[in-house]
Amino acid sequence: MPGRCPGVGTPTVPVLVLPHEPHFKLPPQFLVMLIIFMVAAPLKPSRFATKLPSQPEQDQKPVPNIDTLVVTIESDRTLKLNALSDMGTVDDPSKLSTKLVSLFQERTKNHVYRDEMLSRLDLPEEMRIQKTVFIKAPRGIPYGEVVRVMDGVKGAGADPIGLQLDDLT
Predict the structure, then answer these.
(1) Alpha-carbon distance values, 141 to 35, 64, 136 (Å)
(2) 155 vs 32, 88, 148, 159, CA distance in Å?
């Protein structure tokens, strides 16, 4: 039965209350943005282009860079720096570290810069010097021993350090 407002002769309309009213209401701007993104999503490019190096010619041998430093961990755990042998062992890389420090000092004196840093005059010279070292280790050497050599090389000032595995097939 409709109720009556006191003092007024017309009946009032009851208010309809829904028992399960949603507690989370999305603002209309959010709904508009959702629709726009749903329509625009299929329009974005779906290709992923990469550039791969071409296959080298069979008779072409790569020419090594004279500034490349490669530390080789031999299977007997001795160390070599390029063609120099007797650079210590995995357990004691101090000879290797000393040689690298002297090489980096010589490169600083002779201004041997990394290729990408030749025109970077805004950086200090110490950051521009070629100090890249690659560590070459056989697969059978435990990773902890390689890390020990990496620590010695890093302590000598090498940056960045790359790893190379033997017998990649």
Answers:
(1) 57, 25, 11
(2) 58, 15, 11, 10
Contact 125, 142 (CB under 8 A): no
Place of tokens 């940056």: 159
Q: How far apart are CA 26 and CA 3, in angstroms?
A: 35
pTM of the prediction?
Answer: 0.60
Task: For 58-83, write each residue's pLDDT tens digit.
Answer: 776 767 777 889 999 998 999 999 88
Tell me the domain boundaries of the chain: 69-165
Residue 85 or residue 4, greater confidence: 85
Give the three-state DSSP class for 151: helix
C-alpha closest to that of 155 among 111, 108, 96? 96
How far, in Å, CA of 85 to CA of 80, rounded? 5
Q: Write down the number of H helices and E strands in the chain.
A: 4, 4
